[in-house]
Amino acid sequence: GEEEVTLFCPLTGVLDDCFCDIESIDVFNNFKIYPRIQKLTERDYFRYYKVNLKRPCPFWPDDSQCSIKDCQVEPCPEYSQASNTRSDIEECEHAHELGAINSTLSNQSKEAFEDWARHDDAQDHFCELDDETSPDAQYVDLLLNPERYTGYKGPSAWRVWNSIYEENCFKPRSVYRPLNPLVRRDDTTTVMSISHSPGLCLEKRVFYRLISGLHTSINIHLCAQYLMDEGWGKTVWGPNVREFRHRFDPAETKGEGTRRLKNLYFLYLIELRALYKVAPYFERSIVDLYTGSAQEDATTKDLLLQIFNEIKAFPMHFDEKSMFAGHKMEAKTLKEEFRLHFKNISRIMDCVGCNKCRLWGKLQTQGLGTALKILFSEKEIKNLPENSPSKGFQLTRQEVVALMNAFGRLSTSIKELHNFRTLLSDQR
Fold first, then answer.
1. Is there a binding annotation on residue 388?
2. Active site positions, annotated
3. Which residues touch 187 (CB under 8 Å, ≥6 apart)?
4. Where are the domains of the chain?
5. Is 205 assigned to a binding site?
6. Are 346 and 366 within 8 A, CB to CB?
């Protein structure tokens, strides 16, 4: 159909910065990876994530009163002026119901978590440790809190993303982003291609593309799991094609939509490469995905190793050498630089006024941070001892859970793109 052609036409062939074609990634992901990663992330080891949702936002004051679970009874700061209409306030309250966290856990689970924690050790944290060690940190069941549309939008959501992009000025100044609700729709901001940004070294361009890929992925989940209607007292979630086009159609985004989608594939390949590199770490017999049940743990590990085997068989790998080229010292400095960026992004996520969005934002940030930590630790991974813990390279349970769930979200996004393609071709 014409609509489908205009939206997806530029999204074919070779991906910039790497020799991979998008069609091959689609087939590989949708048939080989997606079904397996879905299964894996439902396992007990991967479905519980520890997170502190009570940290105050360190950068600006106004959202904190919205981040408590029961904030739905309080109008949001954005809606609190007297001039606001009743429907504004209702929309805000509704957003908070949708964004609340379901924190149901059995006592059995709580005891198990203490046992798991004793089983863990690590160093070299790419994300804020306070998220795990604070008394306010709680285990959340990810299956009870799926990532989907929550109604969280407007200036405060835009400000969070803006801060992430601007993190230490890693962003070229003149990129058009239509996400700013404070700018008129007809505002003609200049468009500039990241891959040709003068004065932006490769690593910084990479950082921008990774964040853009993450942003794209999250937006696809929100479009795919949109609140359709609440008739008959039942909430129905499903794909919203209009919302998808609004975010990704070149005609509606001044050509930016295609670049966003390409950045999603770029991020997918980076995380895929990290999984390829970290496979030897998990293949050692000393590494068990411990939940206390030997049989369950063996099944979970087997599932994980199946995913690694599929990844090894995939021929189109991204060469990260091109991404972080440089001397030995430079790689070390770069690793530290990226680590600090991810710590900061983790802190920016504390400013997200919707708890469910904050949960998935933190998890996916930590997953990407862990992927980069792996790519920077190639030598240490090569020298791992088979039967004893390694001082050189170690992953915590948190990092493992974040890494696989974050990759699972990217895999889901690419699968959802296929679904949107089908829906758009049906619309003609």
1. no
2. 354, 357
3. none
4. 2-66+99-164+218-426
5. no
6. yes
